[in-house]
Amino acid sequence: MKEIMEVKERTQELIDKLLEVWESSVRATHLFLSDSEIDSIKEYVPQALGGIAHLIIAGETEDCPVAFMGIEDGALEMLFIAPEERGKGLGKRLIRYGIENYGVERLAVNEQNPQAKGFYEYMGFRVHKRTELDEQGNPYPLLYMRR
After folding, report:
1. Contact (Cβ atoms closer than 8 angstroms) between residue 71 and residue 104
2. I need a labelling partner for 78 at 20 to 30 A (CA). Which of 1, 38, 57, 113 fits?
3. Which residues contact 45 (CB under 8 A, 6 or more apart)?
4. Pick from 3, 146, 138, 145: which is nearest to 67 by CA?
5. How far is CA 83 from CA 15, 25, 77, 86, 90, in A?
6. What is 17-84 written as a DSSP string?
7. What pTM, to 2 d.p., does this model score?
8. Do 5 and 52 touch, CB atoms closer than 8 A?
9. Mean pLDDT across the stretch 105-122?
10. Closest listed residue to residue 4, CA positions, set 80, 104, 93
11. C-alpha span between 109 and 144 (Å, rounded)
12. Closest CA to 102 of 122, 126, 77
């Protein structure tokens, strides 16, 4: 079973491994993004990983992450799981961990990612707001959800 742990020291090596998890996850789930859009977004991921208040990873050890989430002020800001780990209950465990330990009560999800929306609904979140553009002003509608 994968361990869940909060990362205190965010080394470049760990950020690089999490970036690999992020990219493989996005390529498997964000089918509405082009390769160039993924490459463009990827440039900002290390900064986001370094700046998020709580970075929680899951893996055999801290050196081998297969999933991660970022939480700030009761909001789930990011959740990415390596494709080979999807469907094994790790996402549920991470969300529950975030709710129990960090009071996660809200999140935003891309409308064009129906699997993620369905997963969050299964976990007790409901859509309360929709925007036409994402937070960077791109034409990817976001659904804002609350528990």
Report:
1. yes
2. 1
3. 18, 19, 22
4. 3
5. 18, 6, 19, 5, 11
6. HHHHHHHHHHHHH-TTS-HHHHHHHHTTHHHHHHH-SEEEEEESSTTSEEEEEEEETTEEEEEEE-GG
7. 0.93
8. no
9. 95
10. 93
11. 7
12. 77
pLDDT, tens digit (0-9, with 9 covering 90-100), for 24-81 = 999 999 988 999 999 999 999 999 999 999 999 999 887 899 999 999 999 999 999 9
Give the HSE-up count for residue 80: Cα atoms under 13 Å, Cβ half-sphere. Answer: 22
Label residue 114 exposed, middle or buried (CB < 10 Å: 0-12, 13-18, 19+). exposed
The residue behind tokens 């209950």 is: 89
Beta carbons of 82 and 57 less than 8 angstroms apart: no
For residue 3, give the nearest of 60, 81, 68 by alpha carbon: 60
